Amino acid sequence: MDLSTLNLEQLEAVLHKDGPLLVFAGAGSGKTRVITYRIAHLIREHGIPPRHILAVTFTNKAADELKERLSHLLQGDEARGLWVGTFHAICARILRESGRALDIPPNFVVYDDGDQLEVVRRILIELNIDEKQMNPRAIRNQISRAKERLITPDEYRDRASDYFERIVASVYPRYETYLRSANALDFDDLINKVIELLETKPHARERYQDQFRYILVDEYQDVNYAQYVLTRLLAEKHRNLCVVGDDDQSIYAFRGAEVELILRFEKDFPDAKVIKLERNYRSTQVILDAAFKVVSENRMRAPKRLWTERQQGAPITLTPARDEEEEARLIADYIYREVQRGRRRYGDFAVLYRTNAQSRAFEERFMRERIPYRLVGALRFYDRKEVKDVLAYLRLLANPDDSLSLLRIVNTPPRKIGQATLKQVQTHAAECGISLYRAMHDPLLLQQLPANAQNALLGFVAMIEQLREYAETHTLTDTMKALLHETGYLAWVEQRGDPEAIDRAVAPLLKDPTVMMSSLYTEAQPHEYDQPSVVKVVLDQQGNALYFSRSRIPYPRESTELPVWKHIGLYVFRRELLLQFAEWAPTPLERTESLEQLRVLEHGYRIRMVYFEHAPIAVDTETDLARVRAILENSPNPSAENRTSP
Length: 646
Hints:
The chain is an alpha/beta fold.
C-alpha cells in the first residue's frame, strides 16, 4: 500500500491508530481517500481483523464507493467481515441478528416515507380528523423529529403545548401500535431500537462493543441526536472512534441534523486528536476564497480555510434574472453559446435545482431551443407505482402481518373484495388485536360475511399462502416471476395497455428481480450522468455540485437553507464559478439588500458582477438578446448574433 500519494495531514489521519480522532475534511480535500487508506492500514499494518471495524457512511452510494476503493487497496479476502453501510443499514442488520431480545422478529419490514404517511392518514381517519385541516406530512415529520430526539409518545404528550402538538400526541401512540401490529419499523425505529437494545440488554451491548473496536463515521456534521447517542454507545468501551466531517458543509438541519455535535466532539473526548484537511484538489483559489467569504460569516464554526495550488481561475460572474422564465432562458442561451463556439458539449453541463417545480421552466426552454437534455432523479425507480406494488407483495410474503402492504395490493389487480368487506375486516382486526391478514381467515369474521365475500377473502389468502410456500424452496428470481404471474399482476398491467409501465418497472424486475433487494433510497449512479450529448437536469438533495465539471444550481424563490442569500443560484465549475439570482419583483428594500450582499462578495477576491441596474430587460427580439449577451459577457460594444436552432 503506497502512502506516498497522501499529503502530510492525510497521512497523519491514516497513521493514527488508537484513541478518538476528529478529521475536519473540507470540500475536495480527499476525505474518502483518508477513510479507505485508514481502514486498509488498520487491517494490513496493524493486523486488526476486519470484523472489528465498522465504517458508517451517509448514503448507500458512498458505502459502495468505499467498498470499491478498498477492493483496490486490499487483496482477496483481506476485507472479509468488514461492516460498511449507512446508519440505517447497519442497524437493520443488528436488529435482524439480535432484535428478538426486544421481541422484534428478524422478518420485520421497514416502512419508507410513503408507508409512514399512509399510516398517519389512516389514523387521522380513525380519529375523525380532516387531513385538509391537519397536514398528515407535518404530523409524520413531527413524529420523526421526536424519535430523532429519543422522545417517547408519553414524553411527547406531556410536553405538548399547542393544538397541533396535542393532535400529534394523539396520533403518535397509535402510529407506534400500528407499526407493531404490522411487524414493521420506520427508519427512525431502526436506530432507536438498537439504542434500546444496547441500553437495556447488557449482553448485546458487550457483544457489539467488543465487535466494533474501531469505528469510523463519515459526514459526521449531518448526524442527528439519535445517531450521536448510538455512536457513543458503540464506541464507549474501546474509544477508537474516528469521525470525519465539515461543519461548513452541514445542510441537513431540516432533517434533524445537529452540526453542534461535531463541534462538541472535543468536549466529549478531551483527549481527541484533531486534524484539518484544508488542501483542496477540486477547485481554483478564486472559488475557495468566495466560499470562505460566505461561510466565515457563520457564527459557530471551526476555524479553517481551504487552499489549493490552482491559483489561476476564471472570475466569478453574477447574473440576475427577473423570474424563473428569464433564468431558464439565460441558462439555455449560455449553454447554446458555449456549444456553438466549440468550447463545450451539451453533456458538459448540469442544471441542479432544489424543488421539482423548478424543472418546468428549464424543460420548456430546452425543448423550445432544441437543446437535448435528460431529467435525472425526478422519480426514483422505487417510487414508481408498479415497483411499490410488487414490493408490497414481497413484503406480504415475508411478513403476512404487514397490513399496510396488504391494503395496497389486496385489490391490485381487482379481486372483488369491496370497501365494505375491507371495512369489516379492519374493524374485526382492531377489536381482536390481530392483523388484517389473520382477520381475513378468522372463522368468527367469515361467518358474518356473505358467501361471495368469504370466497374472495379465502381465495386471496390461499394465493398468498401458496406463494409463501413456493418462496421457501425457490430463488428470489423464480419467486418474483411466479408472483407476477400467479397474482395476475403482469397480465393486468399488460391489459391496461401501458407499455411505459412495463418498460420502466415490470420488465426490469423480470430481467433482474434482485434489484428489489437494493435500498429504497439508492442514488443515481455516476454513469447515469456521463452522457456527452445531453445537458443533465438534476434535482439536487446534497449540494454535490462540485462533482460535475459544470453545474448550475438555481435556488427556489424562498430558501430556508440560505437565509441571507435569497434567490441566488450557484453555478459551480471545476475552474469557474457563476452565481445567478432571480428577484421575482423585488421591493426597493430587497433590491438594496441584494446589492449589499453582492458588495460583500466583491471584497477579497476577483469577481465580475453583472447586474441590471434599473429595470429587468425583457428579451423579445434579437436586439434584446444581443443586449443581454453583451451585459453577460461584459462587452462594451455589443453586436447582434444571429441564432439558429441546433
